[in-house]
Structures are given as structure tokens and as C-alpha cells.
From TrEMBL:
<feature type="domain" description="PIN">
    <location>
        <begin position="6"/>
        <end position="120"/>
    </location>
</feature>
<dbReference type="InterPro" id="IPR029060">
    <property type="entry name" value="PIN-like_dom_sf"/>
</dbReference>
<dbReference type="Pfam" id="PF01850">
    <property type="entry name" value="PIN"/>
</dbReference>
<protein>
    <submittedName>
        <fullName>Type II toxin-antitoxin system VapC family toxin</fullName>
    </submittedName>
</protein>
<dbReference type="InterPro" id="IPR002716">
    <property type="entry name" value="PIN_dom"/>
</dbReference>
């Protein structure tokens, strides 16, 4: 999202991700990105999806399936870090699936904010 919305962290994120061997996202993350992009840029969700899809293709980002294993890991994550548990990470559903997708693929998680610093996921934080 930072790249698509040209946020302050966009350059740092592009530089850091350039060094990675494999970039992966999920359909859920693409859904969140396209709906947010559509809301911010004030265009249709379909147009938002097309922009996100084109960006992912240009950046060679693989879209990984959300399978039963990812679901299991997301439920485990929620049990530990979901906002309903009162944990300081205060993850939401999308966060839990991002965590799970990264875990299932044995990849680091790139993220903004300070929610994932309270978890056990390996990753790289950008911005605040």
C-alpha cells in the first residue's frame, strides 16, 4: 500500500524488498489493498484491484493460496495476538492472515506500524 499511495516509506520499502529472493502476498492482502486504494483514490473497487494486480505483476510478487495450513496458523496467531485477547499486538483478521501467510511460506513479513513488533514473527518494520 505504501508504494501505491506514495507514502513516505515507499522508497525504503522498495529498496529493502529489492534484495529479497521471493516476494509473496495473499488474495486477502490484495483485497485489503484494492479496497483501501479505491477508497483513498475515490475510484471503483474493480479499478483498485486492477491497479494492485498490475503492481504485483510488475514487482514479480507471487500470490500464494490461503489453504488449510494458513488458516490453522492464522487461528493460532489470533489466539495469541488478536485484539480480542488483550495482547499488546492487537492484530486484526488481516494481520493474522499476513502473519500466517509469512509463516507458512517461511518468509519474513514486511509491515508498517508497531503491531507485529509484539509478536514472534520475523520481519522488517517500516515507518510508524
Amino acid at each position: 500500500m505504501a508504494n501505491l499511495l506514495e507514502e513516505a516509506e515507499a522508497v525504503a520499502i522498495r529498496e529493502a524488498l529489492f534484495d529479497e529472493n521471493e516476494l509473496v502476498t495473499s488474495p486477502l492482502a490484495m483485497f485489503e489493498a484494492s479496497t483501501r486504494l479505491a477508497a483513498v483514490k475515490r475510484f471503483s473497487i474493480d479499478d483498485g484491484y486492477r491497479v494492485v494486480q498490475a503492481f504485483m505483476e510488475d514487482a514479480n510478487v507471487r500470490v500464494a493460496a490461503i489453504d488449510a495450513e494458513v488458516g490453522r496458523i492464522a487461528h493460532r496467531c489470533a489466539g495469541l495476538y488478536h485484539h480480542a485477547t488483550g495482547h499488546p499486538a492487537r492484530l486484526n483478521m488481516g494481520d493474522c492472515f499476513a502473519y500466517a501467510s509469512a509463516r507458512a511460506a517461511s518468509l519474513k513479513l514486511a509491515y508498517k506500524g508497531d503491531d507485529f513488533i509484539h509478536t514472534d514473527i520475523e520481519g522488517q518494520r517500516f515507518g510508524s
